[in-house]
Write a structure and sequence with these properties.
CATH architecture: Beta Barrel
Largest sheet: 22 strands, antiparallel, barrel
Oligomer: single chain
Structural class: mainly beta
Number of domains: 1
Helix content: 10-25%
Distance between the termini: 42 Å
Number of helices: 9
CATH superfamily: TonB-dependent receptor, beta-barrel domain
Shape: globular
CATH class: Mainly Beta
């Protein structure tokens, strides 16, 4: 395997060198130009062209998403950028971004926080890949603008919008290996000043098993016929509705809501210590939002958003089981019987937020953003939280940001000698931890029309979550693990700095970014002696390991990100590479010494590469072909072994029917098909240990999209887009 990884790394180096050698100085590519002209919002919370944004922003466009054909957001991010790593399990996606995990990564959907915390992981099934217009990624501490959870960076999922004119009907059906099914439907219509957009998604997989062997070091005898799955069978679905009312041209009011359900089916084996399962897992999410946008003038806009979100996690029993629980009268009972079909609440997390924001263009080339946020967190976990099973937390924040553009112009001809400075300040007040001030500063200078130089410094601030403070639970899989919260946790702070250079010459682009992120009092799960576990757990269970949330003394991540892309006529080539090194220290009170620990999931080297070809034939047909690869070196963990290095390859194809008769009726027809992991690599690491990848080996997929969008505005937009696409392809 190491030999294979070295081959992949050498391939990537040669590929990048070839890109530099073949670059013609006069190369011009419409697709690359349009990409750089795309408007992004995440870095500063205001609109900028991608090539002029003062904060380094990585964008995955709709075109790239369609070409790749990812089945999930995990598949998309890990396949199209080297900065991410995932370790999927029943509790969600254990995501890592440049060395820091889930709790430090803020995920937004159209600028609003994703809510779906499962055991510290994010349930990214809440995101429908068929609805994504583009993905904007900002790396590094962004707490000054976005608050807590943004120490590692921000991922903003921008969804496709309905323009409130005419009728929209859309269906995407995708099928693949191992019973994989993805269904998406949209219905949109407008009546006067009212409009409605309804979305439905369904995701299903039969799951797969890469090995039947349990970790021999954690069982009394070698188990070779375990029924534990690498990925369990699951089904989830979501219905979302958005209503919009525009009483005047400068006003927009909206209300939206969604319902989400997920069921994970767990097979039961014959070995009580490792694979006997008597319950499935179920998640129930709901959200309600309302807000308004007021365009006060050409230079001022004010928005108000109020959101309520709920995420509830249940055991659904498949066999008669005696557990600690509450009887029908609300009394706590040891070994309370649950029968098949009954459910037991494990946690119910609810969040209410209010956000008032204004953006104002001021004299002297200044743009001011200011906002007020109010947040209330509520956690109920009768079996997993002390103090009656319920805890709450409250945070309020004020923030202000100024963008100074002393020689800014909207003229595309004036595309050099541009200087932009951005400064921000945020004041948080947490009910438990009081006041904290968080600053940020970034700068961009464009000495020539083809070179951008950027630098950024920012601080991060994150208070412990109610779960990190109060949660406790037992996990039985290849041994009994006890996980404990810690009421003595301190808030986490960080200092992030980065410098980058970006070159854009015709169809060629290259960016290199170096960064360092120092986190003080970083919160992480650490292994502690079993004798320090609460006495009731020591007597009731034969504990294999006890892990507790603790503050590390300090942690540091340092790395370099490289992105390269070259487009010429119908072809596009590119890749990304990330080097990462981490270091963390913790005081060992048992031995009275400082110890160095690993930030779980770190890999020193990760890389992605791609080559695509898109061509529009004389007949009404456009074909796209793509070859993709990704690789990772060994991933390091404190316990349960390291993840193996790997490299995977993918082949995709897209087929667009462009018949004028179909276009004139507002129809779009698209077929996607491909093969993933074409060299059939499977990680056979025994259950209970960490995997490099959960891929089941070679898989195939195909999808069909039919979209009807009839209306004056839509039809005009469709013809314009068709002309643009024609220029891009021909």
């Amino acid at each position: 395997m190491k030999t294979n990884l070295c081959v992949a790394q050498r391939t990537m180096v040669v590929f990048l060198a070839c890109m530099c050698l073949v670059l013609p100085s006069s190369a011009q590519d419409t697709l690359q130009t349009n990409r750089l002209e795309e408007v992004v919002v995440t870095g500063t919370g205001t609109q900028h062209r991608l090539k002029d944004v003062p904060v380094q922003t990585e964008v995955i466009t709709r075109r790239e998403l369609e070409q790749y054909g990812g089945r999930s957001i995990e598949d998309i991010l890990s396949g199209l950028t080297a900065s991410f790593a995932f370790s999927e399990d029943d509790m969600g996606s254990q995501m890592q971004m440049n060395g820091l995990g889930n709790s430090y990564i803020l995920i937004l959907i159209d600028g609003k926080r994703l809510h779906g915390d499962n055991g510290g992981q994010n349930d990214l099934g809440l995101i429908d890949p068929a609805r994504i217009e583009r993905i904007e990624i900002v790396k590094g501490a962004a707490s000054a603008l976005y608050g807590s959870d943004a120490i590692a960076g921000v991922i903003n999922i921008i969804t496709r919008k309905y323009d409130r004119d005419g009728l929209l009907l859309e269906n995407t059906t995708r099928g693949g290996s191992y019973g994989d099914l993805r269904q998406h439907n949209s219905v949109g219509f407008a009546i006067g000043k009212f409009s409605s957009l309804t979305n439905f998604q369904l995701q299903h997989s039969n799951g797969w098993q890469n090995t039947t062997i349990e970790d021999p070091h954690q069982t009394e005898f070698l188990i070779t016929d375990s029924r534990n799955m690498t990925v369990n069978r699951y089904t989830n679905w979501q219905v979302a509705e958005r209503l919009t009312y525009t009483p005047a041209s400068n006003w927009e009011l909206y209300a939206e809501g969604s319902i989400y359900r997920k069921r994970i089916y767990r097979p039961s084996g014959k070995y009580a210590a490792v694979d006997v399962k008597t319950y499935d897992l179920q998640y129930r999410n709901a959200s309600v939002s309302a807000g308004a946008k007021w365009q006060a003038s050409d230079k001022a806009v004010v928005t108000l958003d109020i959101d309520w979100n709920r995420h509830a996690y249940y055991y659904v029993f498949t066999d008669t089981t005696l557990v600690d629980g509450y009887d029908p009268y609300g009394n706590f009972t040891h070994y309370f019987p649950y029968f098949p079909g009954q459910s037991n609440l494990q946690s119910d997390q609810r969040r209410t937020m209010g956000h008032l924001k204004g953006i104002f263009d001021l004299p002297a080339k200044n743009r001011l953003s200011a906002g007020l946020e109010v947040r209330h967190d509520w956690l109920k976990a009768p079996m997993r939280v002390d103090n009656g099973g319920t805890v709450t937390d409250d945070t309020e924040a004020l923030y202000v940001q100024d963008e100074w553009m002393p020689n800014w112009t909207n003229s595309r001809a004036h595309d050099k000698n541009i200087l932009q400075l951005t400064g921000g300040l945020r004041l948080d007040r947490n009910r438990q931890f009081g006041l904290h001030l968080t600053p940020k500063l970034s700068a961009m200078v464009k000495p020539t029309s083809w070179l951008n130089l950027r630098a950024a410094w920012s601080q991060g601030f994150k208070t412990p979550t109610p779960k990190e403070q109060h949660y406790r639970y037992v996990r039985e899989m290849s041994g009994t693990y006890l996980y404990l919260g810690n009421t003595d946790l301190r808030p986490q702070t960080s200092n992030y700095g980065s410098v980058s250079a970006e070159v854009n010459i015709g169809g060629f682009s290259l960016s290199v970014t170096g960064y360092i992120n120092k986190v003080k009092d970083m919160i992480a799960l650490n292994t502690i002696p079993n004798y320090r576990a609460p006495e009731e757990y020591q007597t009731q269970y034969e504990l294999h390991k006890t892990r507790q949330y603790q503050n590390l003394e300090d942690a540091r991540t340092i790395g370099v990100d490289v992105n390269v892309r070259y487009t010429v006529k119908d072809f596009a080539f590119g890749g990304s590479y990330t080097y990462l090194d981490t270091e963390a220290h913790q005081y060992d009170s048992d031995h009275e010494r400082m110890t160095e620990v690993v930030i779980d999931g770190m890999a020193h080297h990760k890389a992605n590469w791609f080559a695509t070809w898109n061509h529009r034939f004389r007949c009404p047909y456009r074909l796209g072909l793509g070859l993709y690869g990704r690789a990772s070196s060994e991933r390091y963990y404190q316990i349960n072994g390291n993840g193996k290095p790997y490299h995977l390859w993918r082949l995709s194809s897209t087929h667009d029917i462009l018949c004028r008769a179909i276009q004139s009726h507002g129809l779009t027809l698209r077929v996607e098909a491909g093969v993933d992991n074409i060299f059939n690599y499977v990680d056979r690491t025994p259950h209970g240990l960490h995997l490099g990848t959960t891929s089941p080996g070679t898989t195939v997929y195909a999808s069909l999209t039919i979209r009807f969008n009839q209306g004056k505005a839509q039809f005009k937009s469709f013809k314009t887009n068709s002309k643009i696409n024609s220029n891009e392809e021909d």
